[in-house]
Amino acid sequence: xxxLDELFSAMRVENALYARLExxxxxxxxxxxxxxxxxxxxxxxxxxWLTLDGxxxxxxxxxxxxxxxxxxxxxxxxxxxxxxSSATVNCVDVVRNNIxxxxxxxxxxxxxxxxxxxxWFNFDPDxxxxxxxxxxxLLHIRxxxxxxxxxxxxxxxxxxxxxxxxxxxxxxxxxLADIIFVQVVRAHIEALDPETESGWLAALSDRRxxxxxHLMHKDVASSxxxxxxxxxxxxxxxxxxxxxxxxxxxxxxxxxxxxRMFRAGxxxxxxxxxxxxxxxxxGYESEAAFNKAFKRSTGAAPGAYRRNxxxxxx
Length: 314
Description:
The protein has helices at about 5-10, 90-95, 125-135, 145-165, 170-190, 200-205, 210-220, 225-230, 235-250, 250-270, 275-280, 285-300, 300-310; strands at about 15-25, 30, 35-45, 45-50, 60-65, 70, 80, 90, 100-105, 115-125, 140. By secondary structure, it is an alpha+beta fold.
């Protein structure tokens, strides 16, 4: 399985909300933190400044122009305004009664106009955490025309479903949110330079480490060794291990264990497969060895983890 396919298929968007911001300078909008929430915005016309509040990795304001899209995966509070000196209003105060509609802020007869399609996704925390942990605090993409049109189409459908809910609306909203999120993450990956940048997303595009990641995700139950992975991508064991750690931030076998536990957790939450079958599907011949590894990774034994995860649904 493709690594991104695996992560996105495990994520579940539980709720997605949307509004269209029509702003006339001077204007400003501030938001607060949202747990298990990703924020997004697409600038359709005009521009402004985006500031992540309290984020040391992005201390400087970021200029936004028409065609820019941003996603804040971890729900960090942010400020959006036409000018760094402009006063702001609280997002909750102006948006709460206009979900799925148009929000007008700024001066009625003021200066330049800006239009931003904005909203947020609420994720199932267990399914989303592995991907969200790998994403930076901010994804800022300048969309080409094709991607902008795809996003606008998805957002328009999202707006229709959130305003006029019908049979299956929950599923449709979830799938549309997935499309928007995947489009931006994919564009972000394509913009990375795998030769100079590190991190899991950049590693996916690395000509040596990327194929090794695909091999592990394709057959997570295989008895992979560092030597076997290195040979598969045409590298020496030591060079592969060093490059893998530099790019991914973990050793190859630590990474493999992490994803085995992620896949096992997904099966425990969403299936009734016996523990011995779950253990075998992620590469453990012994149920006892699997139990030990799972508890070390999650802090709970597999049986207790399953009961706790499935109790609310029951």
